[in-house]
Design goal:
This protein has 238 residues and is α/β, with parallel strands linked by helices. It has a single domain, classed as Hexapeptide repeat proteins (UDP N-Acetylglucosamine Acyltransferase, domain 1, 3 Solenoid). The protein contains four helices and 20 strands. The radius of gyration is 26 Å and the shape is extended. The N and C termini lie far apart (71 Å). The mean pLDDT is 90.
């Protein structure tokens, strides 16, 4: 009899031996030790300090140099988080001053539609954890922008809409690849998706989880799937 069969037999049993074994198991898995602060606080500070130092050195000596090596141009004060860049294909990354790539991110360049597909990131822009960029031609992000975590931006659908073309393994058409342009001081919330050809005006806010399939005007709040302008909020009056 293997352990799984033994467990199945003992779990519902009311026999004193089964109850005893269940009690022993419960005692083991629920056992805890006291944690007096005089002992655990120094251990906590040592752990947090050591981790912070390790992350700082890894960011400074590994992650940032690798990201800058991928860049065609970058300004002063460009920083990353503690994740190595995940960049596929060949293209140009142009980053302004004080750009911050907070966490893990992926950048995929497709060279079929442009000689040098380009990602432009303006000065003082922050890009959050787990953002994804798919670039066939160009994605341009302005200055002083805030991109939260988990945002997907793609200027190419990746595959043709026609079922026969997909079955034949054909690429999407050139006119389906449309650059994305994001203005200055734009705030994009968590888990948003920005479709090909979208232009987002200066000062706009994209609510979390929105799917943006059409242009967004300056100083406009849009939310939803598909994202629509809020009828109740005027950003210039806040």
């Amino acid at each position: 009899m293997n352990l799984r069969h033994l467990y199945i037999r003992l779990a519902p049993s009311n026999h004193w031996g089964a109850r005893f074994l269940r009690g022993v198991y419960t005692g083991i898995v629920s056992f805890t030790l006291p944690a007096p602060a005089i002992l655990t606080r120094p251990l906590l500070y040592l752990f947090v300090g050591g981790r912070s130092l390790l992350h700082y050195l890894y960011r400074l000596l590994v992650c940032e140099p690798l990201f800058k090596a991928y860049c065609k141009e970058y300004g002063k004060g460009v920083r990353t988080g503690i994740y190595t860049p995940w960049i596929q294909g060949q293209g140009d990354i142009i980053a302004g001053d004080n750009v911050l790539m907070v966490g893990a991110y992926s950048i995929h360049f497709g060279a079929r539609f442009a000689k040098n597909p380009t990602l432009r990131i303006g000065s003082n822009t922050e890009i959050g954890h787990e953002c994804s960029f798919v670039i066939g031609k160009q994605i341009s992000i302005g200055e002083n922008c805030r991109l939260a975590s988990g945002i997907n931006l793609f200027d190419s659908p990746g595959h043709p809409l026609n079922p026969a073309d997909r079955l034949a393994g054909k690429p999407c058409s050139d006119d389906a690849v449309k650059p994305i342009t994001i203005g200055n001081n734009v705030w994009i919330g968590r888990r948003c998706t920005i479709y090909p050809g979208v232009t987002i005006g200066d000062g706009a806010v994209i609510g979390a989880g929105s799917v943006v399939v059409s242009d967004v005007g300056a100083n406009t709040l849009v939310v939803g799937n598909p994202a629509r302008r809020s009828m109740y909020v005027s950003l210039t009056e806040l």
